[in-house]
């Protein structure tokens, strides 16, 4: 989705049904795909957005903002209305069983643990190389498929391992990441039949931002996605990718709206993470 966000500043958080006066009002570009592509473009990629906008002044404003950041909008359809038509265009690959993705997402929501839900998604989406769940101020967790060669993976409980990986350095204010051992010997109980494949677990922290510096967390997840796209194109290893994406998202939280604070590749705050 590419959209516009209407941002209203008020003196205090309103109670339900309260009428409260605003102190300022702004309109910014928004929408998850628009935000993520803007982030990717500012980091140096040349993304193309496939979406739909209304053929009116607001739609033109959306396109102008995206194009100003170097995003290819030639595949964005301009229509009389921007109402979404269910099932069109199809958003799931033709070769994916109809129930696989929705079932995996349901498992993610009902799962006894985040890590267990991620493994369920890997099981039901066999072509997926990795899955990531963002945890807000608690950081993120990633599970990646990995070849183990002739090494017999070790059986461990996924929840036990996840808890151990959560106990990483919490004194650092900058993002950090901890991974399972480099040989990916871990074989979770849910994958006992896969004798030659293991899973790598990465747990990352978020930057500890002083409350005085947090302006708006809108679009932080979208910024994380855009930075992951850049990291994949730059061939970052998983642990570097998670740290970099977390830092990009944190920088974006220091400005109003989803895009104003998104950094460019040359931002000095990012240079230490590119070394």
UniProtKB/TrEMBL annotation:
SUPFAM superfamilies, alphabetized: Ribokinase-like
PROSITE patterns given for it? PFKB_KINASES_2 (PS00584)
Query: Keywords assigned by UniProt?
Result: Kinase, Transferase
Supply one GO molecular-function term. kinase activity
Q: Which domain of life is it from?
A: Eukaryota
Give all residue intervals belonging to the Carbohydrate kinase PfkB domain. Answer: 13-84, 207-264
- Alphabetized InterPro entries for the sequence: Carboh/pur_kinase_PfkB_CS, Ketohexokinase-related, PfkB_dom, Ribokinase-like
- Pfam family example for this protein? PfkB
Write the protein's name: Kinase
